[in-house]
Amino acid sequence: ELIQSWLLTGSPIQVKPSFNPVIGPNVYLLIRMGARFSPCMHTISGITDNNFYYFLCLNNTNLIEQKSCSLNDICGFTLSSPPNQWYRFIIPIFLHSGFLHIGFNLLTQLILGASMENKNGSLRLLIIYFISGIFGIIIDGNFAPNGFVTVGCSGSLFGIIALYLVNIIYDWRNGISYEFITLIIDIIINFCLGLLPSIGNFNHIGGFIMGFLLSVTLLVQPSRFHFIKSWIWLILRFTFLIVAILLFIFSIENIYSRKIQCTWCKYLDCLPINNWCHIGYLKTNITINSTLNTFY
């Protein structure tokens, strides 16, 4: 990202027209490299079908002399008609908006990921990590504003948090453990932080849900549940797997069909103050859009 930013904008981090607070490249570079950006992925009435709708160019650093680029230029690929860059469900996991963003995620990954890998094995962790991350981005694509740009492995990390929670439940002893209380507090804090602008709660929620479903599916029956017959436990795991698959299929299909649109779901991602819940929607009554936002 930094090399591409240097080559295309002359600076490894965004310093103009404003400084990137997480110390990284500008949002247009992230889109160019494969961030989740709805107009590059599916039809949006008034945006993708409007040949006169433009965005700021990648190397634009002057808001006075705005250079305009088409959606094709912004997405950086040869667009099909309608746009269908499905790989933007996967690539954002490997992209981050800056040093602070990737640093925080790496710290969380090292603390939780290492212990979960030692306890559950590399393969299980890998499956939960990537599928949770992809599903988090898919859920984000269903409910987040159409002008938001999503990058980062937050969904994957919340999948690991869900795995950690399942492990605590499986190892439960008498009374509520300190680990359980700490984890619940951490989940609540992260959810509350997700209500702030530029932090994507839908990514977190999607990753956690998928992580929980996959954790129950992949982990073996714990000894403390020995009173449950093995075939019943097998049915339970299979049921969780089916639910995970159906959620995955339905969520992807709904992004393109938009059959179900939740009007109140936005309040899971923002506080209804200072017009926070109206941030990030592309306007169809302008010719140049210059206010894209990034979800971490």
What would a concise description of this structure say?
Residues 84-219 form the Peptidase S54 rhomboid domain. With 296 residues, this protein is mainly alpha-helical.
Count every beta strand, where a strand is a DSSP E run of 2 or more residues.
6
**Mean pLDDT score, rounded?**
83
Topology as a string of helices (H) and strands (E): HHEEEHHHEHHHHEE
Helix percentage? 40-55%
Q: How many domains, as an integer? A: 2
* Overall SS class: mainly alpha
Task: Quickly count the helices.
Answer: 9
The backbone outline, from C-alpha atoms, is globular
Distance between the termini: 16 Å
The quaternary state of the protein chains shown equals single chain
Q: For the report, how would you describe the main beta sheet?
A: 3 strands, mixed
- Rg of Cα set: 21 Å
User: How much strand content do the residues show?
Assistant: 5-15%
Spans of at least 5 consecutive residues with low confidence: 61-65
The strand order across the widest sheet is: 1-4-6
Subcellular location: Membrane
Organism: Adineta steineri
GO molecular function: serine-type endopeptidase activity
EC number: 3.4.21.105
